[in-house]
Amino acid sequence: MTPAALNRALTEIRRAVPAVSGLQVGERGQVVGRYYGANITSAFQPWRAPAGGEVVAIEAYARSHSKQGDGLSPWHLFADNAVDSDLVTLDRLCRTVHTLNYLAVADGDRPLVLNVDARLLDAVPERHGEFFGKILHLLGIPAGRIVIEIRTVHQFDLSRLRRILASYRKNGFAVAVNAENTLHARSLAELLAPDILMLDARGYAPDDLRRQAGALAGRGPKLAVKRVETTAAAEAVAATGADWVQGFFFDHPSALSAAAPLAAEAIAP
Questions:
Q1: For residue 11, what are the CA distances in angstroms to 2, 7, 39, 204, 258?
Q2: pLDDT number for residue 74
């Protein structure tokens, strides 16, 4: 997206969606949102194909710059003291900022993964995804290009979580859920039928990770393995048939330019 197109998009959102306020273009060309004295912007980390290393998706993380410090997650700054309505406002602002930056630095040509905290799911009782769908419509982005990642699922009654995922799907989004282990992942796959299952590599020795991921790969949902930080873990995941992999072994989140990691040559673990 050119700077002129980005400014037009900002103008349209300000006009059509006044509930999302405080948007501006920062000094480095990224869109910034203003929230309670902090500037909120985006850091991006690619998801890659385990075997070839090509970028298959990009995940956005919110970063804030305030008197409390730079580069912090705004959720750490505000979540403990904010009421639910304030967190919903922050979440909508972050998603809008991420989507605009995704267009600016990644041209919107790969799926964008946006995570949603459990507290936000509690704060919005129904019609999940409707508000964000309006933003995407204004920007001309198909909702199917967005993956909504549900970070915490163990505290939810599964029937309610199934309704939440159904609402996101009704509004056109793909959905991902995080699994704690193979047994949990199989239960989630059967009961929720997400588009993507995410497994955390931390806490597993390479052989255990190979077994855990291997038991899940090719069983329905795509399998994405996160927080891969060592050569041994990367090799273990590559041997399982997993679909996506992410972690510091491949890339660190970048707040300055998401274009650099996206344009990097393929990495072979």
A1: 14, 6, 19, 47, 23
A2: 60
